[in-house]
Amino acid sequence: MSDHGIFGPSSVTWRVMGEPILLVGGLRALLMQGLHPRAMRGVLQNSALMDPQEAWSRFTRTTEFVRVRTYGTSAEVERAGRRVRKIHARLTAHDPDTGTTFRLDEPAALRWVHVGEVDSYLSVARRAGVRLTDAEADAFVSEWRRAAEVVGLNGQDVPGSVAELRDYIDAERPGLRFVSEAAHPLRLSLNAPLPLLLTPLKPALPALTLLAFATLPRWARRLYGLPATPVGDLWATATLRTLHTGIGLVPAHVRYAPAARRAHRLMAA
């Protein structure tokens, strides 16, 4: 196949996104999203995330979207993006702070979700020991402007470098908080709904959630009402590195998902 979608074999994204440690990055991204009041209320008022009958199917749909957006062909990415844009365009939520109704596709909230995702994947990858130069980190952020366009944003309206990413997050911080009507994610992880076959993994979810919290910036942990010290930062980095090193001992044909294995073959070629 010559159509490698929006990234491709020469991208930093393909080299980074297949690493299993990025599961922690995905959880961190959700925690970052949860600090934007409108983004969080959009999820709370329109999602069956914590409904045991619906939660796993929603999770698998989200995971599939990330896979297609990263590794799918141009046509596959466009179909997936069109479906997401259509859903966002028809959903609304209520903002009790202003008494107004807003659409889920409003750019401000979508931009925060995008930035939280990019920042989380990049931060977890680098702290875990995935080797990236500063120039490659900037390239990763820039490449994800294409991902922003998939969900309906203008690529030029989102950060294109690590410095721009940091500046954007700093500018947004005054408006961030954890809304009172949302259940705390750490508490939810203690009783997370899983399909029967995955029930043996349930004891690991609180530990993964705690690690994802520990990878957040200190100011974000404080907004969740959690301790935020340099010791926590050191623990998170050491744990990420240990996990990434341990996972690296697993044979590649087991360690990587099929799409990531194919991407590695194309990059090698």
Please characterize this protein's 3D structure.
There is one protein chain. With 269 residues, this protein is mainly alpha-helical. The protein has a two-stranded antiparallel ribbon with strand order 1-2. A hairpin with a 4-residue loop joins strand 1 and strand 2 (100-103). It has a domain at 12-176. It is built from 14 helices and two strands, in the order αααααββααααααααα. The mean pLDDT is 91.
Features:
62% helix; two-stranded antiparallel sheet; 269 residues; mainly alpha; 14 helices
Q: Report mean pLDDT, rounded to a whole number.
A: 91
Task: Walk across the major sheet and give the strand order.
Answer: 1-2
Q: What can be said about the biggest beta sheet?
A: 2 strands, antiparallel
Class inferred from helices and paired strands: mainly alpha
What is the percent of helical residues? 55-70%
Distance between the termini: 13 Å
Strand content: under 5%
Task: Report low-confidence residues grouped into runs of 5 or more.
Answer: none
Spatial extent as radius of gyration: 18 Å
Helices and strands, in order, run as HHHHHEEHHHHHHHHH
Number of helices: 14
Instruction: Count the beta strands.
Output: 2
Shape: globular
Provide the fold topology.
Blueprint: H1 12-17, H2 22-33, H3 37-46, H4 55-71, H5 74-90, E1 92-95, E2 100-103, H6 107-128, H7 134-150, H8 162-172, H9 185-189, H10 204-214, H11 218-223, H12 230-247, H13 252-255, H14 258-268
Antiparallel strand pairs: 1-2
Helix pairs in contact: 2-6, 2-10, 4-5, 6-7
